[in-house]
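User: Can you recover a sequence for this backbone? Please restate the input before giving your answer.

Assistant: Of course. Working from this structure:
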């Protein structure tokens, strides 16, 4: 418990420090490192479950996908087609990577594992980079990105503490026996509160994008629910792999994927909401 609190505090403190002092390329580099670690952890989980993966091919595709998103957005979308063709390029590379291997005994398993790794990690994590280049009025949209991370992680923290205190009704015990309905509802309420307060502190303007108070309520609800689903998806993968944690990079919190799980599902929701309703 104490290790989890200390690790979580250090993680959030590191995010705030990056927000205050890092240039944009430093933030992107951090995301690339996190992506690489998450890809390697996903490969390990799948292989533990009996699904071999084209490890280095998946890692290369993942980093290329993230770099393509950065390049396209940093060029103000002038080469948007580069980003659009990345899924097709990924499919070619994975299929050909399996085709020309001498051992064809588990080609279908390798295809399934490799496609899942690429879709799950860089396919969803690229939205962190896309979000970073939304808005105007500052060097990048780091205020918007930090807002999203704080709201999503406040759901995790609220659900953990409230669930530990009063949780009785299990959410999905076969997948995540520690989660309760009381904890999830409490986490959602905490996220809505954090969302509105965070927007109010910024004067309801994040990264040059104007928000309204009800956007804070709606986004608090949407991001928290999406974050819980992302957490459950990773729990499902870990249970199928018979692993408690995705890795051991972060004391008390597990691996990088254990940190990113809720963000992977929720950050795309924030990006889509801003694009559709606010920009």
């Amino acid at each position: 418990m104490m290790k989890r609190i200390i690790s979580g505090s250090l993680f959030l403190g590191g995010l705030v420090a990056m927000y205050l002092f890092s240039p944009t390329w430093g933030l992107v580099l951090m995301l690339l490192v996190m992506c690489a670690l998450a890809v390697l952890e996903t490969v390990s989980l799948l292989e533990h479950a009996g699904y071999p993966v084209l490890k280095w091919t998946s890692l290369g595709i993942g980093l290329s996908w993230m770099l393509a998103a950065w390049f396209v957005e940093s060029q103000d979308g002038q080469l948007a087609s580069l980003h659009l063709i990345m899924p097709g390029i990924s499919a070619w590379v994975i299929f050909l990577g399996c085709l020309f291997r001498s051992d064809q005994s588990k080609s279908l398993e390798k295809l399934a594992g490799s496609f899942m790794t690429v879709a799950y990690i860089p396919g969803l994590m690229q939205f962190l980079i896309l979000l970073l280049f939304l808005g105007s009025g500052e060097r990048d949209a780091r205020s918007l990105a930090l807002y999203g991370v704080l709201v999503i992680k406040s759901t995790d923290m609220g659900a953990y503490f409230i669930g530990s205190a009063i949780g009785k009704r299990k959410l999905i015990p076969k997948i995540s026996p520690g989660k309760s309905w009381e904890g999830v509802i409490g986490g959602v309420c905490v996220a809505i509160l954090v969302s509105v307060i965070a927007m109010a502190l910024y004067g309801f303007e994040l990264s040059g994008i104007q928000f309204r108070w009800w956007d804070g309520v709606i986004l608090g609800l949407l991001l928290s629910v999406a974050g819980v689903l992302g957490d459950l998806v990773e729990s499902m993968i870990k249970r199928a792999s018979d692993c408690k944690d995705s890795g051991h990079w972060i004391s008390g919190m597990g691996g990088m994927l254990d940190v990113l799980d809720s963000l992977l599902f929720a950050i795309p929701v924030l990006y889509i909401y801003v694009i559709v309703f606010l920009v």
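That completes the design. Residues 213-241 form the longest helix (29 residues).
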